[in-house]
Amino acid sequence: MTDATDTTDATDTTDASGRGRTAVLAGLGTFVPPRVVTNEELSRTMDTSDEWIRTRTGITQRHWADPGTATGDLAVAAGERALKSAGSGEVDLVVLATTTPDHPCPATAPEVAFRLGLEGVPAYDVAAVCSGFVYGLASAAGAIAAGIAERVLVIGAETYSTILDPQDRTTSVIFGDGAGAVVLRAGDPTEPGALLGYDLGSDGSLKDLIIVPGGGSRQRSAAAAADAPEPDPADAYFAMQGKSVFRHAVTRMAASSQAMLERAGWAADSVDRFVGHQANVRILHAVADQLGMARDRTVVNLDRVGNTSAASIPLALSDAVADGLITPGDRVLMSAFGGGVTWGSTALVWPDVTPY
Ligand code: UT7
């Protein structure tokens, strides 16, 4: 029965003081598997070269998980570190962004939560490919604003090495494995670390640009037809139309970043660091150029880790803080583009958080 004196409104996102409930970044942790795969190593097994990979992408090495290590393992390692960085193991929601879940079913997040000692908390996966981390932040922030959660662990974790075709030089040289996680807590929009809004979007007409064609209901349903051809084993691998993806990534990340800047009330040249999805240094520079932002504001760590998809932005944030490129009080703009196609941006003033 409803208490007539209870005036709580589930859609009201203001706290008792009348201030808005905003998601505030309170911890950051990352993990990359120890095995480093250099361009030189790849050029021994496929028709490529260190020179091509470096000049076309900016990548010099990536980390690949050893057989037996799955996305959930990397997610747990990064999650533990993010909880340590936040100074508390308490969260009441886990959101895991990944393109490479441990299983098609169930989601990876519940087991990750369980292994982190967070038994019983709601946990779900977000599938937005390289935009997954930004989508995860927005989803978690929505849960905080709605009063569903006080503290949320948002993880981006990937083992792309498990879906790359070792014969395909157009994809195998680009992607790496890794995980990054943040803790978001309910706070005030004026605090450092408060996420200042989101710009999200998708265009499903371009779904074939980045795809693992096989393994889903589309292929299984087709295979059930009496005259169905044998499935192509290559359909189990990740495929990308790189040139077209490049063009859309620049256009969408620039437009989404611009929309986010307007939402935050920031001029492009007032941004201290642009943390874009680490796909290609040429994409990051093209986006900076379109925004009218100096290229040296762009954080680049893809040289060390390659394109880690949903893990890319937290890994870049962590490396930038470790390198002294992001310090408390800095204006940080984040933007991503990925399969779907999807895109998303957010921004914050960097808080006093030490990444682990
Ligand atoms: O994470 C989601 C978002 N992903 C992205 O944003 C990726 C966006 N795309 C890219 O970063 C770039 O398109 C790539 C790095 C994937 C490719 O660079 P590109 O400058 O667009 O090269 P291309 O595909 O036009 O290929 C140029 C040439 C081709 O040879 P021909 O046709 O000119 O003879 C390719 O066959 O380079 C060849 N090529 C390679 N050569 C040596 C393609 N891959 C390689 C390779 N090594 N690994």
TrEMBL record:
EC number: 2.3.1.180
Sequence segments annotated as region (Disordered): 1-20
Reactions catalysed: malonyl-[ACP] + acetyl-CoA + H(+) = 3-oxobutanoyl-[ACP] + CO2 + CoA
Chief place of localization: cytoplasm
Residue ranges occupied by any Beta-ketoacyl-[acyl-carrier-protein] synthase III N-terminal domain in the UniProt entry: 124-204
Keyword list, A-Z: Acyltransferase, Cytoplasm, Fatty acid biosynthesis, Fatty acid metabolism, Lipid biosynthesis, Lipid metabolism, Multifunctional enzyme, Transferase
Keyword NAD among record annotations: no
Pathway: Lipid metabolism; fatty acid biosynthesis
The UniProt record lists the keyword Transferase: yes
Biased composition (Low complexity): 1-16
InterPro entries, A to Z: ACP_syn_III_C (IPR013747), ACP_syn_III_N (IPR013751), FabH (IPR004655), Thiolase-like (IPR016039)
Domain of life of the source: Bacteria
Domain Beta-ketoacyl-[acyl-carrier-protein] synthase III C-terminal per the UniProt entry, residue ranges: 261-350
Residues annotated as the enzyme's active site: C130, H277, N307
Localization terms from the record: Cytoplasm
Enzyme superclass (EC): transferase
Location of region: ACP-binding: 278-282
Function (record text): Catalyzes the condensation reaction of fatty acid synthesis by the addition to an acyl acceptor of two carbons from malonyl-ACP. Catalyzes the first condensation reaction which initiates fatty acid synthesis and may therefore play a role in governing the total rate of fatty acid production. Possesses both acetoacetyl-ACP synthase and acetyl transacylase activities. Its substrate specificity determines the biosynthesis of branched-chain and/or straight-chain of fatty acids.
Free-text comment about domains: The last Arg residue of the ACP-binding site is essential for the weak association between ACP/AcpP and FabH.
Complex and partners: Homodimer.
NCBIfam families the UniProt entry points to: fabH, PRK09352.1
Protein family per UniProt: Belongs to the thiolase-like superfamily. FabH family.
Annotated protein name in UniProt: Beta-ketoacyl-[acyl-carrier-protein] synthase III
Taxonomic classification: Bacteria, Bacillati, Actinomycetota, Actinomycetes, Kitasatosporales
